[in-house]
């Protein structure tokens, strides 16, 4: 084992792998339909990492200290035979936790095979329970009913379930209480996510953000909540529990708080680029390296080199100037993987 630390002494613990840049939704805050239209050039198949290439990279990352893997996208369940990849990752010695983030539309079909393959946890995105509002937010592609069926199936087969709701001012902030009530009753963990300035396509403005403070006030007014301790150092969600029921609810305040000091996440895009920050403007190509290089030691050296030189702390430093500098140069969320 050769555990690496970056310039701010942060270890490499988590790896997020985007398995496709495609999606069957067009959420306005992520892949707005005006930008990701019929002519948008998604990656051709031969430019995407194969399952064998992903497994090889996972082995190298584990030897550098990674313990947790999250599969994401685009929409990960659009990738053919995804359970096979989960199985291959589960077979890597040293992988302690495999999770996935999905929009849930295909989960009813895949929950059982994913669980059988070794998936432990799933975060399902759902921004509203109102069919019309949800339909508008996802670019008129998906129905609440389908996502709810996916959520229930995932819970039924024994996957640990969390629900993610991105809150956008004037768009779905009126749904905060209703979402809390619905998932409290079903005893599922709900996480509200502050709308973030990722990518360059969503036209993000600070005015569109509903802050953690406002969200907590609304949930607390619906049903009193109290803070609970983080599960582990570096957890990004502020966790709460209802005073009258042991159901957790949380907020990921990536805009009004900063988690950089404990950020141990690396990301690999579907085409095999390594990113050391969600707000990165450039990545390091690993695909050509593993396609040209038989020796894992060389791949390991390259990844160590990138991590050891890492200085990212965008959230810490987010201000008018840094936002302006990165404007138009950031990598899209659907590409880098959320
Ligand atoms: N398609 C899957 C899904 O929607 O769950 C996985 C990929 S998606 C990029 C990962 C997560 O990022 C989702 O929970 C999504 O809601 C969140 N996300 C996307 N754009 C965001 C933004 N601008 N601000 C905050 N969260 C965002
Ligand atoms: Fe697709 Fe997920 Fe982005 Fe929505 S948030 S467009 S479901 S990748
Ligand atoms: Fe990590 Fe970058 Fe987010 Fe900071 S801004 S917490 S370094 S991903």
Automatic annotation (TrEMBL):
Q: Which GO terms describe its molecular function?
A: GTP 3',8'-cyclase activity
Entry EC number(s): 4.1.99.22
Function summary: Catalyzes the cyclization of GTP to (8S)-3',8-cyclo-7,8-dihydroguanosine 5'-triphosphate.
Stated name of the protein: GTP 3',8-cyclase
SMART domains given in the database record: Elp3
Q: How does the record describe its quaternary structure? A: Monomer and homodimer.
Note the Pfam families from the entry: Mob_synth_C, Radical_SAM
* Name of the gene this protein is made from: moaA
Q: Which residues form the Radical SAM core domain?
A: 7-235
Q: In which pathway does it act?
A: Cofactor biosynthesis; molybdopterin biosynthesis
Cross-referenced InterPro entries = Aldolase_TIM, Elp3/MiaA/NifB-like_rSAM, MoaA, MoaA-like, MoaA_NifB_PqqE_Fe-S-bd_CS, MoaA_twitch, MoCo_biosynth_MoaA/MoaC, rSAM
- Cofactor binding notes: Binds 2 [4Fe-4S] clusters. Binds 1 [4Fe-4S] cluster coordinated with 3 cysteines and an exchangeable S-adenosyl-L-methionine and 1 [4Fe-4S] cluster coordinated with 3 cysteines and the GTP-derived substrate.
Locate the residues binding GTP. 16, 70, 101, 162, 265-267
Q: Tell me which cofactor or cofactors this protein depends on.
A: [4Fe-4S] cluster
Tell me the residue numbers annotated for binding [4Fe-4S] cluster 1: 23, 27, 30
Supply the HAMAP family for this chain.
MoaA_B (MF_01225_B)
> Could you tell me what reaction this enzyme catalyses?
GTP + AH2 + S-adenosyl-L-methionine = (8S)-3',8-cyclo-7,8-dihydroguanosine 5'-triphosphate + 5'-deoxyadenosine + L-methionine + A + H(+)
Q: Which organism is it from?
A: Kurthia gibsonii
Family membership, please give it. Answer: Belongs to the radical SAM superfamily. MoaA family.
Q: From which domain of life does this come?
A: Bacteria
Q: Which PANTHER family match?
A: MOLYBDENUM COFACTOR BIOSYNTHESIS PROTEIN 1, MOLYBDOPTERIN COFACTOR SYNTHESIS PROTEIN A
Q: List residues binding [4Fe-4S] cluster 2.
A: 260, 263, 277
Q: Write out the residues that bind S-adenosyl-L-methionine.
A: 29, 74, 125, 196
Annotated SUPFAM superfamilies: Radical SAM enzymes
Region annotated Disordered, chain positions: 318-338
Record keywords, A-Z: 4Fe-4S, GTP-binding, Iron, Iron-sulfur, Lyase, Metal-binding, Molybdenum cofactor biosynthesis, Nucleotide-binding, S-adenosyl-L-methionine
